[in-house]
Structure formats: C-alpha cells, structure tokens
Amino acid sequence: MAELLVSLRRDDGAPLHAQLEQELRAAVRSRRLKPGAAMPSTRALAAQLGVSRGVVVEAYEQLAAEGYLAPRAGGVTRVAPQAVASAAQATRAMEPPRPRIDFRPGRPDVSEFPRAAWLRSLRRALNEAPAERFSYWDGSGLPELREALAAYLNRVRGACADAERMVISNGFSQGLALVCAALRSSGARRVAVEDPAHQGSVATIRSAGLSPVGVPVDDDGLRVELLRETRVDAVLVTPAHQYPTGAVLPPHRRAGLVEWARRRGALIIEDDYDAEYRYDREPIGAIHGLAPDRVVYAGSASKTLAPGLRLGWLVVPGHLARAVADAKSAADGGSPALEQLAFADFVVRGELDRHLRRMRPIYRRRRDALLAALGAYLPHLRPTGSAAGLHVLAWLPPGIDEASLLRLAAERSVGIYGLAPHRLAPSDAGGLIFGYGTLSEGAITEGVRLLGSGA
Amino acid sequence: MAELLVSLRRDDGAPLHAQLEQELRAAVRSRRLKPGAAMPSTRALAAQLGVSRGVVVEAYEQLAAEGYLAPRAGGVTRVAPQAVASAAQATRAMEPPRPRIDFRPGRPDVSEFPRAAWLRSLRRALNEAPAERFSYWDGSGLPELREALAAYLNRVRGACADAERMVISNGFSQGLALVCAALRSSGARRVAVEDPAHQGSVATIRSAGLSPVGVPVDDDGLRVELLRETRVDAVLVTPAHQYPTGAVLPPHRRAGLVEWARRRGALIIEDDYDAEYRYDREPIGAIHGLAPDRVVYAGSASKTLAPGLRLGWLVVPGHLARAVADAKSAADGGSPALEQLAFADFVVRGELDRHLRRMRPIYRRRRDALLAALGAYLPHLRPTGSAAGLHVLAWLPPGIDEASLLRLAAERSVGIYGLAPHRLAPSDAGGLIFGYGTLSEGAITEGVRLLGSGA
C-alpha cells in the first residue's frame, strides 16, 4: 500500500469527498501523481485520512468518471495514462546516434558480470554483517574490505599494503581526487602527469587546485629522467599499462622513479591500470612494493568487474592516510557498506581470481582479432601496447591526419578515438585508440575492415 | 584457487624449489602474505609457474617445517598464524571508551534494517537489470531510481519532482556539496543557514568555498523575515523538523520564504530532515511543491533505512540540474548502480512505506519514554521538537551550564550532546540533544535517570 499526502479540512464546509476529489485532481494535473501510478486502496486511504471508506470510494468513482483515474475490476486503481510525451522522451530523442561498432576504450564487457556469484556474496554479507555496519562509518571504509584487499594486493600485485592504510573510494577517479585534496592541504602545488595521459585524471588534478605538468612518454613509458626538471610535488603514473600508449614501465625506470621520489620527498601515485589483464608475459608487480612510504597505490573494480559497482581503493603512506580518509568522509561520508562487504566476500573466496581467469582468454582472443584485422586492413598503422589491457594504440604514419580519419570512421558508424585529446603538449604524431573490451571478434574485424576500406 | 605473484628465474642456478621458498618466506615476513591467508593449492601454483608439482610440494613442506605455513590434512594450506598484535589492534585499543548509554542524535535503529526485503530487491535488480546498467553512467543516476523517487516524493511529500531533474548522491551531505559546487560555479558567494544548525552542513558549505551566514531560529523555526538583511544567494533550511531545535516551519513562514526567494532570485535548499517520522499530526508537505523552480529538495535513506546505504537524492530546478549532475560525475562518476536499482525496486513495491509504518510506532514509544523520563528525572528542562524525528532538544533553565552537564554525563557513561557546537553566534541559552533512535525504552529511562540523579 502506498501513502499519499492529502489533507482534508473538517471545518471547511465542503463535503469531504469533494475536498478529496479536488486534491487528487490537482495532484494528477500537476503530475505530482504520475500517469500509471498505483493509487492506495480505498480502505487504506480512508484509514490514513480518518474518514469512512465511502468518502474515498465516492471520490475515486468521480475521478474515474472524469478520466483522471483508471480503475480495474478487482485490481489496483491507477492514475490514467496520458498521451503526452514526457520531457524525458523528448530529451533522449535528441542524443546523437551511437556508432554501430564502438571501439570506445576503458570499457570492460559488463555482459560477463558474474551476477550469480555477486548475489551469493551479497546474500552472505546481508546475512552475516553486524548491524553497526549499516550505520555511519569512518571514511577509510569497512575493515572487512580493507583487509581482504590488502591481502589480495600483496599476493597478486606484489604490493606492500596494510588494511590500516587503505581507503575505499567510489572508483579510481574519486580516489585520485581524495589524494589530490590531501596533497593540496599539505601545501603541494604541482603534479607531473604522463604526456599523453588519461584526460579525466588530468581534469581531476586540475579540479583539486593542483597544476598538472606533462612529462613525455616513449615506448618504455614515462621518461623518468625528465622528472628532475619539473620541480613537482607528486607524479601520477600508469606503470602496468600506460594509458593510452600501453607501454610497460621497465625495471630500471621503476628504480629511477623511486630514487627520484626519495630524493625529492615527492609522492608517486601509481594508477595500477589494466594490471590484471596481461596476455603474453607474467604480470609485473606494482611499484608500491618497492617503496610503500613514497607510493600511493590506486586500483578499482571498474575494469575487472564493472564500472557500475563504483568500487576503488587506495593504499596510502602512513603520513597521508588520515588526511585521505578524512577527505573521503568530507566528500560523501564513505562508500556504501553492503557493496564493500559483498566485495570483501567476493575477494576472500577467490571469486575475483576466478572471474579474471575466465575473462583473460576472452579478451586475449579479442585482442588477437584486433591485431589480425589491423594487419590485414590497416597495415600502415603501427599498433603498440597490446601485451596487456583492453585497448591498443595504433600510431599513424607521418602525413596521415588523425582528425580526418575520425570523421571517416564516424561516417561509417565506427567509433574510434584519437590521441590528440590526451596530449598536454601538441605533437604531430597521430594515433587511434581501439578499445576491444566490449566487442565480439566478428565486430572487431568488421569495424577495422570498414575503416580500412577507405583509408 | 588464489593467484600469487611469484617469479622464478630459470637461469639462476639455484634449484626452483629453493627460489620458491625464498620468495614465499620473504612474502610472509614482509606481511605481503598475511597470517591465516589461504595459499594456492600445489597443483594450481605449479600450473601458474609452469613447474612440476613436486617443486611446489617440496617448497611448501620446507616452509611448513620452518613454521611459515600451516598445512591441514586434506585441506587448504594457510600462512601460519602469528602471535604479534597487528597495527590495527593497537590502534583500536587507543580509542576512547564509548558511553554505555549513548543519546547520539541522527542515528536510526539499524538493527531493524529490513534485510530480507532488501535482499529480495537486490536479487530482482541483479536478475532484471540490462547489462549496460553495470557500465559507466550519467552523473544524474539511473533512470529507474530517479523515476521511482520522483513518484514517491510527489505522492508522500507533496513535492513536484520530475525524474529528469533528479540527481542521486551518496547521502545528504554529498548532495549538499554538489549543490554548493554548482552554486559556486554560477557565482554565488553567501548561503544563509539556520542558527543553530547541523555542524556538518555548515562545514560542507564552507568547504565549497561559500560563506555561511547564520539566521536565528525560534520556536517556529527559521526567522524568515530576517533573510532580507542577509544578501545571500541561497538558504539552507530544515522545515519539516529543524535540526537541532525540532521546530516545524509554519505555513506563513513557508510562504514568506518562497516570496523572499522569488524576489531575490535566490535558491532555497530544503533539507527534508526527519519528514518521514511524524507522530502526533499529519505530515506537512515539502516546500518544494510550492516553488519547484526556486527550491532544491534534498532527502536521503540514512534515517529511514540505514546510513550505510549512502543513498541520497536531490530534485533540482531546471536551470541548475545539468550543473549538479556534472558535479556528481566529476566527484565520483556516479553512485553504485546495483544499490540504485535495488532501492528503486524497494520504493516501487511499497517496501519503504511498509518499513516506515513498522518503525513509526517503535520510535514513538521511544519518544514517549524519553519525554516521560525527562518529566520524572529532569523536570527543570524544557523539551521541544518532539512531534517528529528521532531526537528531542531539551532547553536548560538559565544559570545551568551546558558544558558541566556534559562532563557529568560522561562520568556516568551517558552520551548526551550539547547545543553549543551547533551555534554560529554565541548564546547563553544551553540545551541538550537527546537522540533516541537507537535506544530501547529501558535504556532511555535509565540514561535520563542517571543524568537526573546528580543534576
């Protein structure tokens, strides 16, 4: 039964059923009661208003006669459906058409989300959680999840995490914003970023009042030796799979990065992007394990499970851990409890490992289909960064214009994405980003064929 | 089966089992592998490393002999438990003791959280959601929940909501932060707040770079006639149940508030605090219904269901709706999808109405117990605002010092909360805030008795 906000004035003079009709009529007209909405039963509404049921029956009959309500024999009375299109429908009709084959990067295949296993974890979380977990909680997140993730990251990613220094966030970008807020409060001003880099991360740094400083990337990732000239307080890096070039930072640059951070007293923010998807070699451990006192480790479930979960995490050096947790408290009072508990269960039971083992060969086949199609239909492009992750960057040969290729793709309803928006400093070297996470092998081949047939 | 980050060097000279032992030993020592953590099966680890199973068996046996691992016959091998207390335990031991009877306000009784009904909604959401709901989503939130809440608010709270102008947030305080961010971007500088007000809300306004301006509250809530002198861009009000005085804003002040906002072109931010819990009279509709073009309506599930859900919502006037949704996108990429879908199902099926109908008499009995105990043991206090909500403010008679009463309460392990921290301008009138949401009637009576016996 639903409750309805209606007030009747017993001293009004007008009969109660007439007052009720007037109120309900106005509610339908103003769309406070929406077309199709279920009305309370006459018995329930009478009880709520403290009037006899006859008053409500009479009002409902009158409004049905006027076309406001649609009673059904023996069933629920509803507000009559109307023919007018809602504002929502009008808005949606104006959105641009989505490309038929969309190589948009950074998207995992959410149709493979392990719904049954996730429901089992949710059920256990709901059955077993102490009641206090549903109350307000510290900004760092629930201990169950912090402990589960610390053990997982140490085991799988070679991190050196401790539950006490973890902070749970709503995905990676909030985590980065929290770290930037804490850095800004401690007096930091400049943060080095890879050039090219993820646009969203650069925007997050800027929103926090910090200045991003681009440092060039080559085929081995961030050119660490150039950091010395930047006089920055921190650096954001994607060592596992540089976004968007896909480079993997080699051991000597990792060592150089840590050495630079120690000398300068600077912070390394390690975005462990795509680390879970590695196809041709053994995975490389996180930099965090080398220098947990100088590195913020940042990860999320957005690529491994689903972006819709909005689950991210940070491992923060001791001197910053409290400030980052407080920033999370101030931002939104902490992440939702039940989802944290379910994810803790999911990790502890090995369901995340299992899901990743199932997904890796699926994505590897898509990667292989993409490389084969690029070789066949766009042989003048140079693909890089295909050893890991969910996207490949294909460099354009000199003289081929990125923007005109993107226009051509759009005409053929193929969504590809250029390198230019990710650059901080302008460059002549053009490239196309192919995300293959959400596409079947057939669609990948077809999309590249459509591009190649006129390029 | 779990995965483990271990790398073996086949050209190293040292036997593979010895290399593996060394790696695992280091991992246990450095706590990368935590006490009690499950090890992969020998078969699985051998497959992962590409070595014969005998290598792993030999390494495990050696480490078990050294006390690093604890094998169980026919079961899982685990890292041996250790006797050292973790940093976590040390930290927790240092927290101050919690009062035995805690009248902390703003807490609903989470032990009554409807776990079975929530699980049903989660299950339906997981079974029925289109896969795309698990991907990235617009900052305004999922349409299912925006539509369910708009219909609910219009029906129950007399709001004039439209799904297109709703934004889902992580609880009320994030919602307020988003509105403040949009206001600040549009050039706003000053926001009027009730004095006294919720400290957290004042802090949120300040964090957004806006100046809070206190406007006094009397027994009828915000003194609306004083707004004219403030030259503010917006006002934050709690008309349903002023926090902390519990006043309900009467009709003539509501009308005056709307008139002021229209003349000044200012925004009313309506925190519909405690509107769902009303014990003695019919509920009063939201101000939003009077002027949806000038009012941001803000609500949350923190008091009606549980703070741990971190579910809040805004209805935003058309001219601000896009800016607020974009602020949410920038803050954290949107709220978790599954929780939104579950809550939509919960609202549409009338489960929220049902839960509130079940809780109202429980809270009313606690309220009655509190008023009776105050009358019996602290008769010189003047309780106000008890018609609604989950707390009562008891004014102190002149000459009684708030701070010394709080100290006395702490000595008796009773948690009560003073009015002073909620004030923007200093005042001699002291008061005690008694939250009764989480306490049994017996505990309420006992807590007040303990206070009264020495006051």
Describe the structure.
The structure is a homodimer of 455-residue chains. By secondary structure, chain A is α/β, with parallel strands linked by helices. Helices cover 40% and strands 14% of the residues of chain A. Chain A is built from 14 helices and 16 strands. In chain A, the strands form four sheets. An eight-stranded mixed β-sheet of chain A has the order 4-11-10-9-8-5-6-7, sandwiched between helices. A four-stranded antiparallel β-sheet of chain A has the order 12-13-16-15, covered by helices on one side. The radius of gyration of chain A is 28 Å and the shape is globular. About 3% of the residues of chain A have low confidence.
How far is the N terminus from the C terminus of chain A? Answer: 62 Å
Please state roughly what percent of the residues of chain A sit in beta strands, choosing from under 5%, 5-15%, 15-25%, 25-35%, 35-45% or over 45%: 5-15%
Q: Report the total helices of chain A.
A: 14
Low-confidence stretches of chain A: 83-94
Q: Judging from the principal axes of the Cα atoms, what is the shape of chain A?
A: globular
How many extended strands of chain A?
Answer: 16
Indicate the percent of residues in helices of chain A: 40-55%
Largest interface: A-B, 82 and 79 residues
Oligomer type:
homodimer
Give the radius of gyration of chain A. Answer: 28 Å
User: What is the averaged pLDDT score of chain A?
Assistant: 90
